[in-house]
Amino acid sequence: MSVRIGVVGLNYWGPNLARNFDRLASCELAYCCDLDESVLDRHRASFPLSTFTTRLDDLLEDDTLDAVVIATPVPTHANLACKVLEAGKHVFVEKPLALTTADAVRVENLARERGLIAMVDHLLVYHPGLAAVKGMIDRGELGKDTYYLYGNRQNLGIVRADENALWSLGPHDISVMLWLVGERPSEVSATGESYLQPGVEDVVFGRIKFPSGIIGHLHLSWLDPHKMRKMTVIGSERMVVFDDMETERKVTVYDKGPIPRTETYGEYIQVRSGDIHIPKIPATEPLRLVCERFVSAVADRAPTPSDGAAGAVVVEVLEAMSESLADSGRPVTLSTGVSA
Amino acid sequence: MSVRIGVVGLNYWGPNLARNFDRLASCELAYCCDLDESVLDRHRASFPLSTFTTRLDDLLEDDTLDAVVIATPVPTHANLACKVLEAGKHVFVEKPLALTTADAVRVENLARERGLIAMVDHLLVYHPGLAAVKGMIDRGELGKDTYYLYGNRQNLGIVRADENALWSLGPHDISVMLWLVGERPSEVSATGESYLQPGVEDVVFGRIKFPSGIIGHLHLSWLDPHKMRKMTVIGSERMVVFDDMETERKVTVYDKGPIPRTETYGEYIQVRSGDIHIPKIPATEPLRLVCERFVSAVADRAPTPSDGAAGAVVVEVLEAMSESLADSGRPVTLSTGVSA
Amino acid sequence: MSVRIGVVGLNYWGPNLARNFDRLASCELAYCCDLDESVLDRHRASFPLSTFTTRLDDLLEDDTLDAVVIATPVPTHANLACKVLEAGKHVFVEKPLALTTADAVRVENLARERGLIAMVDHLLVYHPGLAAVKGMIDRGELGKDTYYLYGNRQNLGIVRADENALWSLGPHDISVMLWLVGERPSEVSATGESYLQPGVEDVVFGRIKFPSGIIGHLHLSWLDPHKMRKMTVIGSERMVVFDDMETERKVTVYDKGPIPRTETYGEYIQVRSGDIHIPKIPATEPLRLVCERFVSAVADRAPTPSDGAAGAVVVEVLEAMSESLADSGRPVTLSTGVSA
Amino acid sequence: MSVRIGVVGLNYWGPNLARNFDRLASCELAYCCDLDESVLDRHRASFPLSTFTTRLDDLLEDDTLDAVVIATPVPTHANLACKVLEAGKHVFVEKPLALTTADAVRVENLARERGLIAMVDHLLVYHPGLAAVKGMIDRGELGKDTYYLYGNRQNLGIVRADENALWSLGPHDISVMLWLVGERPSEVSATGESYLQPGVEDVVFGRIKFPSGIIGHLHLSWLDPHKMRKMTVIGSERMVVFDDMETERKVTVYDKGPIPRTETYGEYIQVRSGDIHIPKIPATEPLRLVCERFVSAVADRAPTPSDGAAGAVVVEVLEAMSESLADSGRPVTLSTGVSA
User: Fold this and answer.
1) Contacting residues for A223 by C-beta, under 8 A, at least 6 apart
2) What pLDDT, in 10s, does the model give residues C96-151?
3) A2 interface with B at CB cutoff 8 Å
4) Nearest residue on chain B to C278, alpha-carbon basis
5) pLDDT score at D256
6) Chain D positions in Cβ-Cβ contact with residue C265 (cut-off 8 Å)
7) What's the confidence (pLDDT) of residue B196?
8) CA B73/CA B58 separation, integer angstroms
9) How far is residue B329's CA from residue B293's CA, in Å, rounded to a whole number?
């Protein structure tokens, strides 16, 4: 039986989500909803079988609708998600889940109480390349210890007046790091600069400290003409680099091996590079995979790696980094909170 | 007339300096000096015309000797440099110049008072690739504004028990950043972790703030099996990457251009990538160039970009970053000091 | 006014052509035609406004239809193209235009006599990257002379029992070479081997000699797991490489410069590498561009670089190379024929 | 006991050989010989312990001299090598061994008769990266069958008036191919063009056919500003690329796997790329390794992969390719000769 879905917000990322849900055999794109008639008009031809409406209530009041996808501006995410859940429907929310931890936790709690799926579009945690990285970490292939990881998300993109590089680019790397490490962060900090528009950071360096001692480092920028989309994880035996700008070499694994050496003054531990391995990664689009996962979660209620709880911790990190950003990079301790 | 030089300390980097000075037509390698006879014995065959000695005084007392090269362990740099200057000879000191700003300033002042050359082996500021980068910045080819720059110095190298990644790797990138920006930094901070040996940071992230608003960011690590030696400078019109691991593509210039764009919600400034240009860079070794420069400075007393004053600011930054490192990354303000 | 088009043959490449013509504002996909009902059924949902039929005559008899696209198996190309032209309609033919020069010339002559457009899908001659290469050659930017060019088309693809690597992969590089050089070839040769299936060459090396002395060299293979799609042109002053496997660096230009040098025995001419330049190339899909060009040619009758005459010379080269292939690489002279 | 060696010919490559032999602990560089006093003078300082002479007889008459290295112009190789062997000394000859097969065979026969080592400086067969490739082939890791291999040796180098690209660049790739395949070639052909100097081919394409059906293809050029030094071997299961321009990635192995597939018209065999593996290769210089091997062969008379017989087959291939080059690429059959 097909899952019936409606998409709300068709101005920016929404049409991509609509198209992907529409293509899934197990899913029916029942509604396209946007406040702006002219935005709806742009997409009518693409989805001839869907109902187009400016009223969210048309969706909420339809008892045959299973789930709603929220792709509206970020400040509206949490309230719309709550409305959807209160109407007894599952919800898929564009990232970030909310602008405040309190709001994110509200969505998460509501989903848990009602026994409904709330899933955030952290699509990179569904990327086949990062799945390979996660598998290596979990099987201990990077070595007994994971030392640190760092993400590079740099390019010349769309610079928004109302969202800085941290909130715009950060959710990707933060969600990936939390998922790869599998721990709740204990402390974060961030510094940044606003070169193009006063008060809107266009380059941000962030740091996430995990209880085990693992560090995650972020480099986010809208100023670099050489596009980078990378996540590097360094363990005691191997390093793995995920590079989303590569077409055929998304994942590269570097071996190493410690070589003790003695020198005249001081003790040395020499380590050298070894073999390099580039596994074949399936080329499936992460956006397709995240949509499939939502549809199957609605059907079988299986947990997902980007559920409301995961989305709420990402918002917590973003909020704490913003606090640090405003205070010259002072470290901000995260609550041990019941939320995650 | 040939400049007569003696090299002190032949255990680690000294032989490379000795070899390079020995090859210069305008220079005579008069002495090789080390406290350890067995170290001297290893190099006698390579420099058959030089006098080998364990006594520094043999060099200092030789009135025909023009200059002394100090390649001994770091803690001895400042004292030995002062001894050399007090003996009326020019001095070339391996990096870093000293362990404390006070010591570095002492060397610098002594050289100034005596009218002698004190030069630090910040060899990257003599690299033809970085000279091309500096030229682009100075001619305004990166645009009206330089936004920020970042250095990556990561590899599996020799891990020392007595020197962390900041002091071991940092002098390279710090000296390059100070030279490229041409300003005295106003504030620095650093965070780091010690994975291999307690108390010795093997991965360090640093930040240098310049009065003009330019930010320099450092990523130093001994843990990464994929060797990186990069410096990236981002200006308002272009980005330039210096990559010392490339053999034929040391310098890459990326064009960009702002494209105004209007969207439904919010104002956007879109910027896109443009042409890429890879200028031909002469393949001359920086080590040879820094040695040539010292010999010519001794001959003509022309100022160098890595004189005592430059070396002292590098030590100031290292010292302030160490303070920040010990205090969870708290920013440390640099004095406006008379020293530089 | 919209150009009305029908696509014949939907089993392999046809659907891609149908989709691209369907998307063009100036074009209406009036018919989808295939002998096999089940093939038609696979595509009905994608083109809801088109008429689906197994009868080619439905298209030929429709006076409102402007043009027909032939994407059927290669042996049928020429006959179907002639039928279309005889019905007074323009024709777009998948590559190669025919299996024999005689057949190709028949299509070309018919189109000329009737004043109709016959265009072959040599889509690479519409590639923005190769347009940049062609521009450089035509403006003399590679130097006074073009020396030689070579194409690499290697990968693990679909190995067909009924078509060797020459006929399957060759039309791309041959059409590009003829277009870039702008001369009728005087002589060709080819050697090849059949490793996977007796009698079907899966690796072929070919050579095209042009009257000006320029040589084109082909390396075609189905056996190489590292996919290559490259065309390199070497001129007296510069070399340009078109690499279709690159996403952001499709075209790379290498400067050089002669440096006279005298040595003890013999005369030397030393030449060295210079700057490298990577121009920004628009990312438009060549398939979209070739379809646009056909539609506009139908509308304005402007000549195209892959007209029937161009398509016929490609077939002539393929036929002569086949002859050479069967005779251990013996060079085969091409007629100076009136056909091109 | 040390092997005593003399080097003859110090104008071009000889000094590199002299330096490498001089550095070996097991070898003593007893003589440096050249007809030109001024050439000798350039090198006296580098080898203070060697005897410098313009008389070859000084070497041949010295009963304590074990071996002679011939680095003179190519036309003199064979005669000088015979003189050395007739004087009862081992000989190491710069490549190619001779200008004609007859001369090469003369050297080879003389060495065999006298029980002396004759070794040719085909230094690539001692390259650690190609040793890894050879190991993979011999252990069957590229699959049951080796299909074909191809070499690229392209750059802007020294263009000689008296030697074309085939004779100057070809010995490297030909010696490697013969050694990798381990068969005597049955047929060769070559085509080429002379762009810079009439009658001296500066770009050559060659083809070597082996009895087992393996094909070797050569692309030799002095015209390409992008330097290439590559050897690619394609087997039924894997492809391996040796790229000597890479510093850390000399050898790359590409996996593949056949996937049967059925389509509507025709039978298909689809094959796709798999994992990529880049083994760590020791960084030892091949020139050092070839010198070590000669010295140890002199000491223990162990056979080498570049002995006189191997050197003679390389000359046979060069000679036959020259014949083909002069005859528009007509295939030339190689004798089954007793010589190898």
Assistant:
1) A154, A156, A195, A196, A202, A203, B147, B148, B234, B239
2) 999 999 999 999 999 999 999 999 999 999 999 999 999 999 999 999 999 999 99
3) no
4) B276
5) 83
6) 11, 73
7) 87
8) 20
9) 37
According to DSSP, residue C326 is labeled: T
Out of A255, A274, A278, name the one closest to residue D275 (CB): A278
Tokens (6 digits) for C269: 């001419």
The radius of gyration of chain C from alpha carbons, rounded to an integer in Å, stands at: 21
Average pLDDT over residues B106-123: 97
Distance from CA of C294 to the nearest CA of B (A): 30
Instruction: Using the predicted structure, report yes or no on whether residue A219 has a pLDDT greater than 50.
Output: yes
Cα–Cα distance, A106 to A274 (Å, whole number): 49
Tokens 């703030």 map to which residue? B209
Q: Which of residues 266-285 of C touch D (CB under 8 A)?
A: 266-274
Chains in contact with B, where contact means 3 or more Cβ–Cβ distances below 8 Å, are A, C, D
Contact C278 B277 (CB under 8 A): yes
Contact D277 A277 (CB under 8 A): yes
Percentage of residues in chain A having pLDDT higher than 90:
84
Give strand pairing partners of D119: D92, D307
B211 CB within 8 Å of a chain A CB: no
Instruction: Return the residue of A nearest to D255 by Cα.
Output: A280
User: pLDDT tens for residues C73-97?
Assistant: 999 999 999 999 999 999 999 999 9
Across the range D244-265, mean pLDDT stands at 72
Chain A residues closer than 8 Å to B12 by CB? 263
pLDDT greater than 90 at residue B331: yes
Residue type, D331: P
Element (H, E) at C217: strand C215-221
Which B residues, 226 through 245, put their C-beta within 8 Å of a C-beta on chain D?
227, 245
Q: Which residues of A touch C249 (CB under 8 A)?
A: none
Residue carrying structure tokens 């980068």: B133
Cβ of residue D331 closer than 8 Å to a chain C Cβ: yes
Helix (H, G, I), strand (E, B) or coil at A202: coil
Q: What is the number of other CB atoms lying within 10 angstroms of the CB of residue D75?
A: 12
CB B161 within 8 A of CB A267: yes
How is B104-169 classified by DSSP, letter by letter?
HHHHHHHHHHHT--EEE--GGGG-HHHHHHHHHHHTTTT-S-EEEEEEEEE---EEETT--HHHHH
State mean pLDDT over C266-281.
74
Which of B161, B193, B241 shows the shortest C-beta gap to A266? B161
**Taking CB atoms and an 8 Å cutoff, what residues of chain A touch D257?**
none
